[in-house]
Design goal:
Layout (H helix, E strand, L loop, with lengths): L13 H27 L3 H25 L4 H11 L2 H4 L5 H6 L18 H13 L2 E3 L3 E3 L1 H4 L2 H15 L6 H11 L7 H17 L9 H8 L14 H19 L1 H14 L10
Antiparallel strand pairs: 1-2
Amino acid sequence: MKKKLDANRGKLTTAQIAQGMSAAAQNARRLAGDAVALLKAHRFPTAASLAILSIEESGKISILRSLSLATTVDEVSDAWKDYRSHTQKNVAWLLPQLVVAGARKLDDLRPLFEKDSDHPYVLDQIKQLGFYTDCLGRAHWSTPDSAIDESLAEMLVKVASLLAGKHEYTKIEVDLWVEHIGPVSKKEHALMKQALVNWYAAMQKMGLVPEGANEMEQFVRDGFPGSGAGRPDLTHKEEFDRREAILAPLVLARVGIDSFLFTYLDWTIQSPASHSIHSL
């Protein structure tokens, strides 16, 4: 018997990628549901750690999208490395906090992918603290019950539930992604933004997302669609921030932005093609 699982590291078809995205989304929802049950049972450490596992599963979706566009052996290899890296899969957990801090538009979410950011490592450490005992610092014994309290567990479970969403993915959706995003991937920012808008329009024509206004275009230009972005006068500021932090991931999930905006942001930070932000 092999000591390790026989992990695939090759190129996948768009049908296989869609299947993997749906599997990740389904498992993210399962883990988030288990975390909710444990939170209600006051099993806060395990609830927090399971919530983080759910966040990691949700994070696989954008990585699989990037795999669909990989054209070289190195790009395929890098995508699989990210897929199996805990810290590459959990970057989205700060999304609600960024919204509270004022993030409303696509480029406002760049801190999620800053290379010197420590938030992915912090979350991975919290996950370990929720599962295991350890001897830390000057012989301090850490236990899950002492490391994870109710408020932290509740916050992580809410984030996991928001990011898990309910979306299932199809081959057609991934095919359209490759058709529209592939030719401009890792190129000038304005081209990638327009490609996102065009991709969403194509999805509308195929009946894969709601008809009507192109909510992707609104998000890229003005901020979260339907969220009241840019209008904090609507409510008391604290209530506005709280509402936006809850609503933003839900809106992103509804239009499908949740899974691919991270791909775009990661590319724009890494790409040497352009370091200025252009509007459409």
